Amino acid sequence: LPVPLAAAKSEVREPSNEREALLAEVWAEVLGVKRPSMDDNFFALGGDSIKAIQVVARIQNAGFTVEMADFFQYQTIEA
Fold this sequence. Notes:
Helices cover about 45% and strands about 0% of the residues. By secondary structure, the protein is mainly α. Helix 2 crosses helix 3. It is globular. The model has no long low-confidence stretch (mean pLDDT about 90).
C-alpha cells in the first residue's frame, strides 16, 4: 500500500498566531495526531463529520465563531 500523504510529510508548518495554535491543538486532540501542519487537510488526517462536530464545539467553547459549513469549505488550519 502507498504511504499515507500525512505520514510521508516530514516538514510541519508551525502556527503563526494564537488562532492557528488553538486550531492545531484541537485538531491534534480530536484526530489523535502529534502536530498537524498548517496545510494538512483535516479529512486526509482521518477527520470525518463526527470529528468535525467535535472540533467545531471545542472552538466555539473557546469563544470563536465557526460553523460546520466552514469545515467543508476550508479544510486546512491555514485556510
